[in-house]
Amino acid sequence: MQEPEEKKIALELLETEQAYVNRLHLLDQVFYTELMKEAKTGKTVPEEVVKMIFSNISSIYQFHAEFFLPELRKRMEDWNSNPCIGDVIQKLAPFLKMYGEYVKNFDKAVELITAWSDKSPPFQELIADIQKRKVCANLTLQHHMLEPVQRIPRYELLLKDYVRKLPPQSPDRGGAEKALEMIFMVAKHSNAAIAEMERLQNLWVVYQRLGLEDDIVDPSNELIKEGPIQKVSTRNNSTSEKYLFLFNNMLLYCVPRVIQVGAEFQVHLRMDVEDMKVRELKDTEFPHTFLVSGKQRTLELQARSGEEMNAWIK
């Protein structure tokens, strides 16, 4: 007799969970434990760095190995009398919020591995030595570390498939649909963590280009638009090349630096967005110009095209 489709998916969830726990074991009990042991001798890398690389992997490993996998296994053994996994996954969902921290830290962790591999040959050798073991299947530490980042989307896909294949009258329908909704919310939470991390990284790059002026560096700022612009000088009927950064709260009017050591731009003027007025100018001599007037001063600016001007005004 053929297994019902939903049971096949539930078994796939169990199999992938077992493989996933093995991967977490490798990360926590092998890589993390051995690197930490070496770090304690003080020869390879500071303990702090190892902790930063692995973030909260130990909690994630313990949760899956000691709670979720055993619960799932028990449920699959009792499948004939209780063909449900929705309730087990509902218990799992709130704990998946732990992934937010790991996911947010992932890029930083990979950077640290690269930086310390260059800086400390013993650190690099130890990682290479572990990577040669059969359990690593010829894959790098970075590759194994990506697995937790990809796990939540995987739950979501399997569960979607499971709900789709459930017969309408299945006792698990309500539970599985609720579980899917919960997993979806966690995935959103995890994606939001990644988006926020990317926003802060991009912001940091902009601050570096501006020479890290301390009154500008603020993590709550949002960059809305940036780009080159011509400044119109009515006095001598000419234009000069400038560069604008528009944030949610300020407009930075900059001059590109000729000698690019360190900062790329010098901030000439900072205008508050509050009370700022912007309007198009109908100037035959200088097309695509617009006027930006704020508390600090008024600028007559020329864009390269009508489209670009409209984008700035907007």
UniProtKB/TrEMBL annotation:
SMART domains with a match to the protein in the record: PH, RhoGEF
Primary location group: cytoplasm
Chain ranges of the DH domain: 5-193
Any one Gene Ontology molecular-function term assigned to this protein's record: zinc ion binding
GO biological process, one term: cytoskeleton organization
Subcellular location(s) of the protein: Cytoplasm, Cytoskeleton
Keyword Phosphoprotein: yes
UniProt keyword Hydrolase present: no
Domain PH: 222-314
Example of a GO cellular component annotation carried by this entry: cytoplasm
InterPro entries noted in UniProt: DBL_dom_sf, DH_dom, FYVE_RhoGEF_PH, PH-like_dom_sf, PH_domain, SOS1_NGEF_PH
Keyword terms, alphabetized: Cytoplasm, Cytoskeleton, Metal-binding, Phosphoprotein, Repeat, Zinc, Zinc-finger
Lineage top rank: taxon: Eukaryota
Protein name as catalogued: FGD2 protein
Native source species: Anthoscopus minutus
Gene: Fgd2_0
